[in-house]
């Protein structure tokens, strides 16, 4: 099933939210009268809590509506947020389909379904290839177009504005891992995307006043962890070049550290300080099979240890949102069987074991660490 067809089918699930997720209309019981003594009030305020909502990308373990229906009600029991990261649907737009029609078919039902699960929805419109941030998104390249073209940038901006006004997401991302493009990609493209983001940010705030705008930075690359040629770009200084409300962080430490305990205490804090903005974790994870040789008790324990370490690090920067890549591991063979021609399914394999449950939804050791943190009351940033 092509992704558009899958999303269009998911949109048909909107009817579920009309009857399956209605709130009770019964009159609430009269509140109990309580006397709260000062000492007890102090104890309540000191109770453990979390300042961030928690969730994942909207990626099911298998590319089917059935997999969505099986997975996301379960995920919603242990999360309160979801991120939709999508490219602009250039194939349809350039073929003449109206943006209004596309959102009605591909987004309305899906977002209604997710919100019916009590999930706070954020959206990231990705102008870059998710597996190679030095080049433009698959849809753009497949159309033989480029965002270096002012006319295409204008359409891109119209699409972002439509999503902002129609859905008013909690957070709206305008670019993903944009520092990687600055360091290793086309400098003209980077300049054009940076300027486009900075034009869009104030317009989004008018169209969706409650939405917070962000771009994400690849933290591991900012620290020089990946084995790529050195760059003259100062990733941390670059964080000041974007008009954002929060700075998004992207990090996959299992590719760069042997143990979660090796992640420095200031690993995320440095970008927070450099940007001068609050932070969210916009994507990340730790693989329980990072070398593709099969999960072991050791690697599963490492993944669980990462979640404990991650929450300490997120607490230290008072993150507003924590989004990891996967709730459930990906069934790569199922994705390969339905892949569109030229789609890089093998590129997903190193990320496919980052879920806290298996592709069959069986809990992994990391599940307990995540669930324990999610069980703490959310107190907001």
Written description of the protein model:
The chain is of the alpha/beta class. It has one domain: TIM Barrel (Alpha-Beta Barrel), CATH 3.20.20. It is 42% helix and 13% strand. The strands form three sheets. The chain has a six-stranded parallel beta sheet with strand order 7-6-3-2-1-11. A three-stranded parallel beta sheet has the order 8-9-10. The protein starts with a helix and ends in a 7-residue tail after the last helix.
Task: Give the SSE layout.
Layout: H1 3-11, H2 14-19, H3 38-45, E1 53-57, H4 65-76, E2 81-86, H5 90-94, H6 99-116, E3 120-125, E4 128-129, E5 132-136, H7 138-142, H8 150-167, E6 171-173, H9 178-184, H10 187-207, E7 212-214, E8 216-218, H11 219-222, H12 235-238, E9 247-251, H13 269-275, E10 279-284, H14 297-316, E11 321-324, H15 332-337, H16 365-374
Parallel strand pairs: 1-2, 1-11, 2-3, 3-6, 6-7, 8-9, 9-10
Antiparallel strand pairs: 4-5
């Amino acid at each position: 099933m092509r992704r558009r067809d899958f999303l269009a089918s998911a949109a048909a699930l909107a009817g579920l939210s009309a009857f399956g997720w209605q709130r009770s209309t019964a009159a609430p019981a009269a509140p109990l009268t309580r006397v709260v003594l000062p000492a007890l009030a102090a104890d309540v305020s000191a109770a453990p809590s979390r300042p961030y909502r928690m969730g994942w990308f909207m990626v099911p373990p298998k590319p089917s509506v059935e997999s969505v229906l099986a997975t996301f009600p379960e995920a919603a029991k242990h999360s309160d947020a979801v991120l939709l990261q999508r490219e602009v649907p250039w194939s349809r737009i350039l073929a003449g389909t109206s943006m209004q029609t596309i959102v009605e078919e591909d987004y309305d039902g899906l977002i209604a379904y997710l919100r019916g699960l009590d999930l706070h929805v954020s959206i990231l419109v990705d102008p870059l290839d998710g597996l190679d941030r030095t080049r433009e998104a698959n849809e753009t390249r497949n159309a033989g177009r480029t965002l270096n073209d002012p006319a295409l940038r204008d359409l891109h901006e119209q699409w972002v504005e439509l999503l902002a006004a129609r859905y008013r997401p909690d957070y709206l991302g305008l670019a993903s891992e944009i520092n990687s493009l600055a360091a290793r990609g086309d400098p003209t493209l980077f300049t054009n995307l940076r300027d486009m983001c900075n034009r869009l940010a104030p317009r989004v705030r008018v169209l969706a006043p409650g939405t917070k705008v962000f771009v994400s930075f690849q933290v591991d690359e900012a620290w020089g962890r990946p084995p790529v040629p050195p760059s003259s770009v100062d990733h941390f200084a670059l964080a000041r070049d974007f008009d954002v409300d929060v700075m998004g962080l992207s990090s996959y430490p299992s590719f760069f550290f042997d143990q979660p305990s090796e992640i420095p205490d200031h690993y995320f804090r440095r970008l927070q300080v450099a940007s001068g903005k609050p932070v969210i974790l916009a994507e990340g994870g730790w693989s329980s099979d990072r070398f593709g040789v099969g999960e072991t008790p050791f690697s599963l324990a490492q993944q669980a240890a990462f979640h404990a370490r991650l929450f300490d690090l997120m607490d230290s920067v008072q993150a507003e949102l924590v989004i990891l890549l996967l709730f459930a591991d990906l069934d790569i063979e199922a994705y390969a069987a339905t892949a569109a021609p030229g789609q890089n399914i093998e590129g997903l394999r190193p990320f496919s074991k980052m879920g806290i449950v298996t592709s069959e939804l069986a809990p992994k050791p990391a599940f307990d660490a995540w669930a324990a943190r999610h069980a703490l009351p959310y107190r907001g940033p």
